[in-house]
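If I may wish for something, please walk me through the protein I am sending here so I can picture the backbone:
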Amino acid sequence: MSALRAPRRIAVALHGIEPATFERCALIRDWLDDHDVDRVTLLVVPASDLHPFHDRRPELAEWLAERSGGGDAVAQNGFQLRQAHPPTGLRRTITRGHARGPGCPEFVGLDDAETRRAVHAGRRVLKLAGITPRGFVAPAYAYTAGLERALAPSFDWWASLHRLFTDHGRCSSYLPSMTVGAGGTRMIGGRLTTPWGVRASALLAGPLLRLDLHPADLDEPGRIAAAEAVLRRAGRRTAVTYDELAAVPA
């Protein structure tokens, strides 16, 4: 067995799925099907405007059920994705020097109780929509110690930019992601690179290639071109979800 070559796989995650981005996300998912990516991890924002997503867009819940039945995994992408208000008092002190306020990742500067409430509320919303998520991804991969503590009892896995944590957060695999950036650049393991560098990195990637996509990618032709080049070079890889990665060692 040791002489056998490890299977070559690709794990694509589509971030930021909410009522306002539904059409774009559906287009991206169809585009991935065109590139023979038959399994994707769909990261759903439960209540981006503090209203359950399935109340705003029932057809989004139906689409998620259809995609899940076809092999996709549905995971929780925070609760509302972004902070609605700037932090004050102690939270302002905690977050000094970091992105904060309206539009910044929602868990930055929250205390443990606020974090737990947001995580559990999001999970309840998904369950009301008929979804029981096994995994969680923090908006912008912005984790705090309090968030990690809140995730362990409720999820089989959670993913950071560099790792997939399983077994209630005690074990992890080093799995750096490739994320589309402005102008067609990409983030590979936390470092920006050019579209050419992305293509070369995809060609030289190891057994698992992890690729992140976002609704805003459709606004930048360079992003889609870079992603398309990666997918062409990944044509012989088997698509897997994060649920599957959590169940089978990478």
About this structure: The two ends are 16 Å apart (CA to CA). The domain at 9-80+107-247 is CATH 3.20.20.370 (TIM Barrel).
